Amino acid sequence: MEKGTRLGLSMALCLVIASLATATPPRLISYQGRVTDNVGTPINQNGASVRFILYTDSTGGTIRWAEV
What we know:
The chain is α+β, with helices and mostly antiparallel strands. The protein has one helix at 3-21, and strands spanning 52-57, 60-67. The protein has a two-stranded antiparallel sheet. A hairpin with a 2-residue loop joins strand 1 (52-57) and strand 2. The longest helix has 19 residues, at 3-21.
């Protein structure tokens, strides 16, 4: 491979890596799970409500976001 071509490919790779490093994080997080009772049996009730809460601290704190 020609020296100039290798240099060009190396520079392009560096630009791709730099753009990935400075990319903004996504605003949405996809998550899947299962709803079970306290012994691990799946709950299969239509219309069951689930409340999601995000706190400012891992041990509680103030509520930052909540949704039912």
